[in-house]
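Hey, can you fold this one?
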Amino acid sequence: MLDTVVIPLLKIAVLVNAVLVAVTFLVLMERKVIAWAQSRLGPMRVGPYGILQAIADPIKLILKEDITPVKADRYVFTLAPIMSLVPALVVFAVVPFGPDPLYYIGDINVGLLFIISVTSIGVYGIILGGWASNSKYPLLASLRASAQLISYEIAVTMTLVSVILTTGTLSLVGIVEAQQESGIWFAFIQPVALVLIFIGGLAETNRAPFDLPEAETELTGGFHTEYSGMRFALFFLAEYANMIVISAIVVLMFFGGWLRPFPSIAFLGFLDLLPAWIWFVGKVFLFLYVFIWIRATLPRYRYDQLMGLGWKVLIPVAIGNLVVTGVFKVVF
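Sure. Predicted structure:
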């Protein structure tokens, strides 16, 4: 009873709360980083250096009036943001933060397949939210989101297959252990796969420069134009939770997960003094910074450029990388 029910429930409670708290501070981090990139200071009024802005924003969203458009489908309108957030949180069940079972809820032998399957469900929340709003801008945004996901999911999935060929396992713990045994991060073995998965992750999380479903200049606010209050906050939480998921997947598959830098070099053994989960969280934080940096730097793609990049560039490159990986696996 203790091992199968109580401890997993405690892990789930701690992890969900940790993710939600991380999201609030990630929003503050994004506002600060973009402000610095534009020679501004960002939020400075709430608390020292504006650090309490991360608490003020959720309170504001909770207290705001939650409006439902008169002609909207009320039940689907409420269900949509929940459908976006829940898959983003469920994925963390198989994300290992360290080598010890204490640091993950479950290690299943098809962990990578589980992540691909569950994260693909999240787009249904965007599609249903756009349709249930009974407004033309959210509907256009939901169509964009579905086309975008289909286009980039193919490239990402085929790229993941090349990594699976390299490791021989779908378990995320097994992928990190394979990097430990080989003594080298897969970022140096599969650099093309790293670039493809990160670009695909940007597109699947609707982040700049692929934020076409939210294009403010064209669609006012995209799929969440008609949302306010707590339901808007759920969409907000889902986007940033997905950013953490993509960063965690990239770290686990290409940068050794919880392993310290250069794990095969004994001279750097003093780095093992830091707990494994700190290395993992630090690497994830670095990729979250890259997400924000890209938003502050790159302009938004035009929609035909977005689709062209997915179908004409990423998918052919992913197929080529898969073929080369298979040949190397057979020959060497």
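The two ends are 48 Å apart (CA to CA). Let me know if you want another pass with a different chain boundary.
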